[in-house]
Amino acid sequence: MGDKRPRSFYILALFFTAYVLFLYGPMIAIYILSFQGPDGGLTFPMNGVSLTWFGKVFSGGGIVDIGAAFKRSLALGLVVMVITVVLSVAAGMAFRKPFRGASVLFYTAIASLIMPSIITSLGIALEFRLIDDFINKHAADYGLGWLAEGHTTAMGLFTSGLGAHLTWTLPFGLLIMFAIFNRFDGRLEEAARDLGATPWQTFRHVVLPIILPSVVGIGLFGFTLSWDELARSSQAIGSVNTLPLELQGLTTTVTKPDIYALGTLTSAVSFVVIFAALSVILVLQARQRRQGSDAGKGMV
Amino acid sequence: MLSWARQTFPAPSIRIDRFSPVAVTIDNSPDTIAPADSGLRRLAMRSIAWLQAGPMMLVFALFFLLPLVLVVIVSVWDYNEYEMIPALSFRGYTDTFEGCVANLPELCTILKTYLKTLKLCLLTWGLTLLIGFWVAYFLAFHVRSKTWQIVLSLLCTIPFWTSNVIRMIAWIPLLGRNGLVNQGLVGAGFVNKPIEWLLFSEFSVVLALVHLFTFFMVVPIFNSMIRIDKRLIEAAYDAGASGWQTLVNIVIPLSKPGIVIGSIFVITIVMGDFVTIGVMGGQQIASAGKIIEARLSALQFPAAAANAVILLGITIIIISALTRIVDVRKEL
Fold first, then answer.
1. Looking at chain B, which terminus has fewer C-beta neighbours within 10 angstroms, N or C?
2. Residues of B in contact with A100 (CB under 8 A)
3. Average pLDDT for consecutive 10-residue bins of chain B (332 residues)?
4. What whole-number distance in Å separates Cα of residue A10 and Cα of residue A8?
């Protein structure tokens, strides 16, 4: 393969460009349309430029309580992110050595990843319904009458909803950890051990700083996947809705560009998180290059 | 046992990892344990591993495995208008297949729905495979600088981190009756009046599914391709193989694991989908996932569970057929 680009390069470059346009074009269209003038409709042309529809979203005019859904999704996303990072890093460390149950956990994670979401969602809904039935009927038998009193449902944002989101984010976290440790030089840990570091010190001062950029990546997946999660939450979230669920509900009823404004705002949060995470990753890597040891250099 | 997965499973993180300058060598050295206190230490090590992996296993047990078991159990429960009754009954299944035998040769609702779902699935699979393969091929073989590879991969990944619903809504201004496409077509005189089937139709469903899920095809295929030893391709070139021959005899066979893994992702997503089909089909198109949703909103839990078991069974059959075609583990 010489230096001259073959003709196929130009054809595929064109194809790739078309794919990227296909990915971004529609999204950009609604970002533009969310600035539609007050008399504008759901489609082009733009009928003036205004912030009318953003105002509508913020004032809650006409649409359900978006602010509350926004806060709920944000809180859930952050909790999911933290749990995903902690559990994935911990489990990833465990997988570095064979342990009994390793393959069970691995296949469970893969199954959870590819399981049609509606089935997971249904299962969690059933689980919590059965718990509710049990509490309502039998709590008094065990002297736990107070539990049944006023009990409506155990389902909620941070019980069933959190669980549903974790079944989706944890497999990603685990697979990212596999990818990290697949490229990790175990001799660094051995060196730390030889120098008398405790396992915790080895993790805290050697392993963690090296894997930190990727751990930020796990956090990015954890938050964004939860922030946008819809299918698994649909049956398992209880009485309150997350932002994507509200958005989905709006698709059938709304005929005004406020849905675009809401979409733009939701995407803005995603983009802020994505670019914040990517910047942190870049900064961390730059720091590693600057301050990291020269271990491994010249060995590859 | 897990090495195949560790080494080649398409962690959708390749982008992030590729940033990492810390990659040094792969650690294959077994941990050396002093023989003297090995028994005790091994016990300690094992309990540490369980402490580390336990929390994740617990989450999966509570929110994935137990719910699955409950789905299977409840699918053979009885039910009435407003609650499920814990008594053995196959009503969930018999209700689902109602009229399937009686109305032959006319297809019953459930079969029609599954055929429709399979059709959408097949179309989406074919298109995502075609697009995903060439996008991955371009990234893996034509983009030479690492930096560009990262930038372009990120470009493909960013939409995956944004909301699916918004990416569906995004088609409305383009495909609607007064959307850009129709404006263009009418304006250019290709059609007299706006085309109606662009939005809220099977066309828009497949378009949105391809739009949303080609990513799941690109990542594993790219991951397979990037592992292909470039010298193989040079050797084929030197031996006089045409580009096409190289593609068919080297690149495609060696990308098979990625293709199969991507296919499993896309097929399982589409088979169970009810959100995309709902939104983009204008809530008018039935699908396997939507049946479950409908049964649930009617509070017919055992019927919903029975449908989930059927869907699960069909999905498992498709996956095992795919893994039969290519032994993923052997290939990797």
1. N
2. 46
3. 36 36 37 56 80 93 95 89 80 81 77 91 96 95 88 90 87 84 85 84 93 94 91 90 89 91 92 90 87 87 92 91 71 45
4. 5
Smallest Cβ–Cβ distance between B23 and the set A9, A95, A183 belongs to A183
User: A286 to chain B, minimum CA–CA distance in Å?
Assistant: 9
Q: Is residue A158 less than 8 Å (CB to CB) from chain B?
A: no
Whether the Cβ atoms of residue A33 and residue A260 lie closer than 8 Å to each other: yes
Residue B285: which of B117, B128, B96, B97 has the closest Cα? B117
Please name the fold of domain B108-331.
MetI-like fold (1.10.3720)
Helices B202-226 and B252-272 cross at an angle (nearest 10°) of 140
Residue A72: CATH number of its domain: 1.10.3720.10
Instruction: Pick A2 or A241 by higher pLDDT.
Output: A241
Q: Where are the domains of chain B?
A: 108-331
Q: Is some CB atom of chain A closer than 8 A to the CB atom of B238?
A: no
Report pLDDT for B29.
Answer: 42
B260 CB near a chain A CB, below 8 Å? Answer: no
- Cα(B53)–Cα(B51) distance, integer angstroms: 6
Q: Percent of chain A having pLDDT more than 90?
A: 39
The whole domain housing A168 covers: 65-253
Residue A290 lies in a domain: no
Encoding tokens for residue A61? 């005019």
Return the pLDDT at A52. 75
Residue at A295 is within a domain: no
Write down the pTM of the prediction. Answer: 0.85
Give strand pairing partners of A36. Answer: A49
The residues in A 212-241 lying below 8 A from B, measured between CB atoms, are: 213-214, 217-218, 220-221, 224-225, 227-228, 230-231, 234-235
Rounded-to-integer distance, Cα B208 and Cα B167, Å: 8
User: Which residues on chain A are in Cβ contact (under 8 Å) with B142?
Assistant: 5, 8-9, 12-13
- Residue in A closest to B63 by C-alpha: A163
Closest-CA residue of A relative to B309 is A119
Minimum Cα–Cα distance from A227: chain B residue: B163
Q: What are A232-277's pLDDT values in tens digits? A: 988 888 778 888 888 888 777 767 777 888 888 888 888 999 999 9
Give the total number of structural domains in chain A. Answer: 1
Residue A40 within a domain:
no
Tell me the per-residue pLDDT of A186-243, one tens digit each, with 9 for 90 and over. 898 899 999 999 988 999 999 999 899 999 999 999 999 999 888 898 888 877 888 8
Q: Which has the minimum average pLDDT: A77-81, A249-253, A278-282, B50-54?
A: A249-253
Q: Give the Cα separation of A74 and A56 in Å (integer).
A: 20
Q: Residue B84: beta bridge partners?
A: B79
**Of B13, B74, B179, which has the smallest distance from its Cβ to A176's Cβ?**
B13
DSSP single-letter state for residue B250: I
pLDDT for B21 equals 35
Minimal Cβ distance to B56: which of A30, A105, A289: A105
Q: How far apart are CA A32 and CA A30, in angstroms?
A: 5
Burial readout A195-210 (b: 16 or more C-beta within 10 A, e: otherwise): eebeeeebbeebbeeb
When CB atoms are compared, the residue of B19, B60, B271 closest to A112 is B60
| Of the partner residues A110, A180, A252, the one whose CB lies closest to the CB of residue B283 | A252
Neighbouring residues of A229: CB distance < 8 A, sequence distance ≥ 6: A164, A165, A168, A242, A244
pLDDT (average), residues A48-55: 78
